[in-house]
Amino acid sequence: MYNVGKAGLTFWSPTMNLLRDPRWGRTLETPGEDPYLIGKYASGYVRGLQQLDDKERLKVAACCKHYTAYDVDNWKGVERYKFNAIVTKQDMEDTFQPAFKSCVTEGNVASVMCSYNQVNGTPTCADKNLLSGVLRDQWKLNGYIVSDCDSVDVIFNAQRYTKTPEEAAAVTINAGLDLDCGVFLANHTLKAIQTGLVKEVEIDRAVTQNFIVLMRLGFFDGDPRKQRYGSLGPKDVCTPAHEELAREAARQGIVLLKNDNKFLPLSTKTIKSVAVIGPQANVTHDMIGNYEGIPCSYITPLQGLSEHVNTIYAKGCASVLCPPENLHLDDAKNAAAQADITILIVGANRSVEEESRDRVSLLLPGQQATLVSEVANASKGPVVLVIMSAGGFDISFAKSNDKISSILWIGYPGQHGGAALADVIFGSYNPSGRLPITWYPESFSENILMTDMRMRPDPSTGYPGRTYRFYTGTPIYPFGYGLSYTTFKYSRLKAPRLVNIPTGTACLFKHCETISATGSYCNDLSFQVRVRVQNTGTRPGAKSVLLYFTPPHVHNAPRKQLISFEKVYLEPWEAKHVVFKPCLLQSLCACGTCAKLNQEVNKNSTAQHDHLFPKLIAFRFTPKTIFIPKFSTIFNQKSSSRSVLSQEPLLFKKIQTFNVVQGGVM
């Protein structure tokens, strides 16, 4: 589109904030709630946009946003422009930062966007530690840092963080900001320089970072029509291959949540008519979410289903908000009473969840639950419930309703989402999607403040924690959940019996030696887990095998943590080997252990903490059940003049265990 003047070569995408709270309006922009998954998504997304054969050149410039701890937009009057996210160091290190680190270090992203909010009292776009310290010095960002649009203006006019606009310009530029999405810096930077608040060297740095990206994009290489991609245009977008890709992406994203008695897939040989009911049954634009492109064409759910069988259509609710006055039960119930099968399509759209619009409830909007229950009771045959949304809902009423045989979640499935839904319902495609988020009960939204940033549970107050890594409550559907039309069997073929991890030479304090979780040191300590996966059913299907790490129950570590995943496609009775090569040290740090240990060391550098850094750590694999290998930590207590480990602290007389378990499919 750049070639025809419809777009630039910089795309401020992907949004990669972790979904901490299910009510966040921007759920439809995010890849989920797991930091490892988000990091892999973001780095892959960036490489897909940017990469050329020459690694210093760019096809387009991507941007990882919104940095950092940003996931409150407008909840009960609390707006993102003034929100101060109070975040513990441990939560910052193992929850909010890892995906951004992956985006920079693995994806080599060309820019990072700082967010509107403050973190622990400092606006992110004015935080020198976050920008210059972490992004530049630690992660070696090869690109520019940009503000979210008008963020610098927000720092002065909304947050009142500085007394003058020149000070707001200075504090952001001096922190490491290179580009303002807005006009605030254009209006106030010169005076900030003239009054000595900003040195010209900082301006030179910012301009240089921006121009380097422009050079990598080829802005100074002459006529763009003569460059590598100069001949591309609209004709290359809406090709049959690309439209099929849109349909395939939608198919892979559909999650089968319930399928009593293997009701799905339907057969067109036995089903003669289907009632298609619901406010989302015949939508177009709602299917493509927000920050959307221009679709080549639409296939709505009603259109897709009508390609297979005769349909009877009733909207049921005039809008997705479904207030009582817009609920039309009679037409919907009549349609359900006539048809062999009823397919209800409900959920949300941007009037419910989007930027600047957080939810206050996890129930279906308005009278949608009434529509579902009444239609299910009136239906002649079984009911399939389809949820179109980004965020999850408390649909426990439908989960337990025997008349509702199957439930599907289709997200916002894109331009050909209706065709993809029909492919799944009528069996030409076997669903393989798995939930990237936890679906919570309504009690979560009733009792937990969205502004409470804590990830970890607090038993003393009944605070349940957040996401599958910490949540102690019972979810409606858990992270990683999803059914298939076939069945799979796992068996563990290979895993090391023992992994020795020698300590490094650097000491965090004088009485200990430490281990490193970075660079080649980690690569040398990666180990291999080999799993055999077999399709034991009669239908071909795909399975995403998830490898979880369950750390020792110390330092508020997660209940479990995803450390690797792999998707395999299997014909009936076919088996394949899946090989994982995780680094256990990185897994420990992903679980917050490193961050917590560093905090304790910094707070109190005394010998009483020496037990946190054993001279040698060995991870022993002991088979427990099929594909539930068990890791045991064993501490070697060699005597040393530099360590008190020779005293054999009581902690080491007990062997702590943690498991790697096979979970759901992603």
UniProtKB/TrEMBL annotation:
Q: Where is the Glycoside hydrolase family 3 C-terminal domain?
A: 254-485
Pfam families with a match to the protein in the record: Glyco_hydro_3, Glyco_hydro_3_C
Any GO BP: arabinan catabolic process
Asked whether the keyword GTP-binding is assigned, the reply is: no
- InterPro entries linked: BXL, GH, Glyco_hydro_3_C, Glyco_hydro_3_C_sf, Glyco_hydro_3_N, Glyco_hydro_3_N_sf, Ig-like_fold
Q: Which UniProt keywords apply?
A: Glycosidase, Hydrolase, Signal
Which molecular function terms from Gene Ontology are attached?
A: alpha-L-arabinofuranosidase activity; xylan 1,4-beta-xylosidase activity
**Superkingdom:** Eukaryota
Q: Please give the SUPFAM superfamilies that the UniProt record associates with this protein.
A: (Trans)glycosidases, Beta-D-glucan exohydrolase, C-terminal domain
GO cellular component labels = apoplast
Show where the Glycoside hydrolase family 3 N-terminal domain sits. 11-208
Q: Does the keyword Membrane apply?
A: no
Instruction: Enumerate the Gene3D superfamilies for this protein.
Output: Glycoside hydrolase family 3 C-terminal domain, Glycoside hydrolase, family 3, N-terminal domain, Immunoglobulins
Which protein is depicted? Beta-xylosidase 1
